Amino acid sequence: MEQKITLRVDGKERTLTVDTRTTLLDALRERLGVTSAKKGCDHGQCGACTVMLDGRRVTSCLVLAVAGDGAEVVTAAGLADGDDLHPVQKSFVAEDAFQCGYCTPGQIVSAVAMLREAKEGWPSVVSDDLDADRVVLDRAEIAERMSGNLCRCAAYVNIVTAIEKVTRP
């Protein structure tokens, strides 16, 4: 069965007809040509396909495209303001927080969304104070919050450093 859907991807409204079993990742990559989100494991375990769906990070290989009808989808490609990279993107470059780069778009989107979650006061498993109004993003907190994004090259130390540097004034 097919259904017509509309997605706002990286600021542009896109309308397409998809099989109701099509994942958001496949709709982005195969139907819309948006290749920033990567297909890694295709089981929601690696985070390479992470995008923001209405401001929340999701593994797009596990979300049906029809469930996103009318939603705002932001990929790593949509974070920059023209040629001006997002602060997290700049920090990843400055801190050499990637090696092969395959997981990098998902890592960056996840980091941007994670920083928003922390700013809104969402605690994590390692948060010292679950009732705190403000989450302190130390290295352990950042690592825990980014644990859903895997890097085969093991650039974790630099990834955490890049995110940590963005949190400093």
UniProtKB/TrEMBL annotation:
GO terms for molecular function: 2 iron, 2 sulfur cluster binding; metal ion binding; oxidoreductase activity, acting on the aldehyde or oxo group of donors. It comes from the Bacteria. Keywords: 2Fe-2S, Iron, Iron-sulfur, Metal-binding, Oxidoreductase. Pathway: Alkaloid degradation; nicotine degradation. Residues 3-79 form the 2Fe-2S ferredoxin-type domain. The keyword Oxidoreductase applies. Coiled coil: none annotated. This is Xanthine dehydrogenase YagT iron-sulfur-binding subunit.
